[in-house]
UniProtKB/TrEMBL annotation, chains A, B:
EC number from the UniProt entry: 3.4.11.9
Listed InterPro entries: Aminopep_P_N, Creatin/AminoP/Spt16_N, Creatinase/aminopeptidase-like, Pept_M24, X-Pro_dipept-like
Top enzyme class: hydrolase
PANTHER family, per the entry: XAA-PRO AMINOPEPTIDASE 3 (PTHR43226:SF4)
Pfam families: AMP_N (PF05195), Peptidase_M24 (PF00557)
Similarity comment: family membership: Belongs to the peptidase M24B family.
Reactions catalysed: Release of any N-terminal amino acid, including proline, that is linked to proline, even from a dipeptide or tripeptide
One Gene Ontology term from the biological process aspect of the record: proteolysis
Molecular-function annotations in GO: manganese ion binding; metalloaminopeptidase activity
GO CC annotations on file: cytosol
Residues of the Aminopeptidase P N-terminal domain: 2-134
Name of the protein in question: Xaa-Pro aminopeptidase
CDD domains the UniProt entry points to: Prolidase
């Protein structure tokens, strides 16, 4: 945990945005795997962590704006518990660790909220994403568990998103540490990308590294020789010489901040000329996109720049045709680059995604496109100093998508479908780094993980 | 997955126990970590796995007893999904894999159930353990999500427990494979128990091994130099020479069967005489308990035999006093051995615990004791051929419990509190293996993981 002053400051800042009301942050509970007592690794809710820091189940944090008071509600351990669990801190001591003055048993929370509601106090809460929470909050507020989520507070969402979007130095340090773990993970993957090993051998090794240096992986790693399948969580294939291995994996720091890195590695350690051609396009797109990053730039324009470079590269190879700008305007590049360039990062690897992408990545000045590909862009709005997000262009040859487009002769003025067929079994390439917007430009966070063709090849042979 | 004949046979056997009604098995859904799209490793519900085999989210399996029909309800992937996820099997094909004739979209399940209910058909379902499921089932049946769990079918619970309790050869083979993974994990832990390393180094390594050879760990491993704290999931301590490291860890096979092994290792590879004295008592208790196992024996008697051997051993060391049989009758041993000797194992590491321990471990002939210690015994009833369970006696010196008892001079005729104080910082020792009840006796499953003092010491030095 950070120093308690940090949490006090964060809550003060949030409080300033409200004239009245009660801000309720429900911490997460244990999540059962296959029966109540066998639970997944506990993960605290990220907004709770941001304002109340404690990585412990069954807590609720409250900011009472009207009375200018803060509360921690939680479970007070009994002597019986302590016999089984060892010495446990008192609730008041936990509250003190995050600078909260008042604490009480969670069993009194319902009565506490009821009294407030009866006085006409508005209870602000964030969107819920676990069924347990729908039940819990509905029970606390005597509301309908099926409908309560619709009552999440837009005002609180907007205030939290505004605050969490700008990363403080202690947060950036955590992301850098998560990136140091990612460095170890990805350079290990590069050394392990040998024919005969399986995707799962690497998957298991990366999980082990992430657990040994931090809290574990920040999301299911994608370790796949079928990188063209974007949502691919299967990792049972054997690595074959000549295939490209997409490794999209990050770690969580001890303070629950994420990293999210992708590298694409030639199985056997040597890119073919054809692979190199595509790889260099993706890398050029990424470097140029990163170079544009500074406060005031709209991220949708960064995305479109990357798309144009991809289109230009594919035109040079004869896979696309026509003018790159027009091709991108028409959305033709999306056959090969169908996803967004990046997303916010922080306490969540897709930071604050649970609060709503429309608040995190868009605003009144930037509306979501409806075009295939561009519609998937998670972050489009104007960049501010302190934003941290991913930059992850890619080129994929997705047989199912190619067939779909080809059958309709979609955008045939920009796509050379005959040439595309030659790449049908190519797979996919993605290169991803994590970027901080600084006052005047950007900083690529973390130690440089090999990404030049020659560096990736050299990393394969490193001892 | 097993051959579809196995699932057909299991469902046939279950069906025979019902004259009428509809048996509904809800499969698990994805479980969000910190926002809806970032999910934990998917784990299918164990009873769903047992009867319908498919390790895929968002399914429901139905056995319609009256019409003698079976159904699989699930999500039919769209072309859009396939673009992102790669080729996906059709629902009908999934159903076929487990020998189910009928399949339909999950969106039609509510209507299907409503029609049945309107005809007076009783819907039998098992207890729910995830909030999402309370909401889902309540929505399907137009019921109250807060109360629906009380309507779980006792008849279905009893039928499922009876069937799942007796393991078939293909299940035992899976448990043996999970134990082979455990062998790799525990011998690795023995080699790693070196001063200067941390508990977490071992924790991470064991997780990596479990993922590389199977589905990962079957429960949070306990890797602790404070083994006296029974529910200890902290693993941040550094290993110190002279301490005992309790490693309680198991793996899940590819077919989702568990192993659950405990070994206690002297940090630095050499037991002290004092450690050896206690260790040998635990080991003797375990061996004698295992030797008693055969059909017809009540497991509570196996537990009490282990307790008596522990009491006798502690009397010999002067820690307890009086007659071992009387001490155990009075419950005095429970200061040092406060938990049960074992629990059922299978698709859940505490097999079927979510269905209710009163059904799994107790029956009309065997009621739960109220005595401290014995009350925690999960499996007490008469053993049958085909049962698989753990045998895990232990001796612990729990400072908080010692203080509690000593203050009350509890059972002071059996406990030499002055002598106990000498062991205050001893820690704990537990030794656990997994046992199958055979037709005439028992079989300790899996490869022998070092447990004799000399073997554990030798394993520390193995390359």
């Amino acid at each position: 945990m950070f120093d308690h002053q940090i949490y006090i400051k964060r809550r003060e800042e949030l409080k300033k945005k409200f004239k009245s009301g009660l801000l309720l942050f429900l911490g997460n509970d244990e999540a059962p795997i296959n029966y109540p007592a066998n639970t997944y690794n506990f993960r605290q809710d990220s907004s709770f962590l941001y304002y109340f820091g404690l990585p412990i189940p069954n807590l609720a944090g409250i900011i009472d704006v009207d009375e200018n008071k803060e509360y921690l509600f939680g479970y007070e351990y009994t002597l019986e518990d302590i016999v089984w669990m060892g010495p446990q801190p008192k609730l008041a001591e936990l509250a003190e660790r995050v600078g909260v003055q008042n604490s009480d048993s969670i069993s009194n929370l319902k009565k506490f909220l009821k009294t407030k509601v009866s006085k006409g106090v508005k209870i602000h809460f964030l969107p819920l994403y676990r069924g347990e929470h729908n039940l819990k909050l509905a029970s606390l507020l005597d509301d309908d568990p099926f409908k309560i989520n619709r009552k999440a507070s837009k005002k609180l969402i907007e205030a939290v998103v505004e605050q969490r979007s700008v990363k403080a130095p202690e947060e950036i340090a955590e992301i850098e540490y998560a990136l140091e773990i990612a460095y170890q993970m990805h350079t290990t993957a590069m050394r392990m990308a040998k024919p005969g090993l399986t995707e799962n051998d690497i998957y298991a090794a990366l999980n082990g590294i992430a657990l040994s240096l931090g809290n574990g992986v920040s999301f299911h790693p994608i370790i796949s020789i079928n990188g063209q399948t974007l949502h691919n969580h299967f990792h049972g294939n054997q690595l074959q010489e000549g295939k490209l291995l997409v490794c999209d994996a990050g770690a969580e720091s001890y303070e629950f901040y994420s990293s999210d890195i992708t590298r694409t590695i030639p199985v056997g350690g040597k890119f073919s000329q054809r692979q190199k051609d595509i790889y260099e396009i993706v890398l050029t797109a990424q470097k140029n996109a990163i170079n544009m990053i500074k406060p005031g730039v709209k991220h949708v324009d960064v995305h479109l720049t990357a798309a144009k470079i991809i289109a230009a590269g594919l035109i040079q190879l004869g896979i696309m045709k026509g003018n790159p700008g027009e091709a991108v305007k028409a959305g033709a590049h999306a056959l090969f680059f169908p996803h967004g360039l990046g997303h916010m990062m922080g306490l969540d690897v897709h930071d604050m995604e649970g609060l709503g992408e429309q608040y995190v990545g868009y605003d009144d000045k930037t509306k979501r496109s409806e075009q295939f590909g561009l519609a998937y862009l998670r972050l489009a709005k104007e960049l501010k100093s302190g934003f941290v997000f991913t930059c992850e262009p890619g080129i994929y040859f997705i047989p199912e998508l190619i067939d779909q487009w080809k059958a309709k002769k979609k955008l045939k003025n920009f796509i050379n479908y005959d040439k595309v067929e030659e790449y049908r079994n190519f797979g996919g390439i993605r290169i991803e780094d994590n970027i901080l917007v600084t006052e005047n430009g950007y900083k690529v966070l973390g130690r440089l993980i090999p990404k030049e063709v020659s560096d990736v090849e050299a990393a394969y042979n490193a001892v």
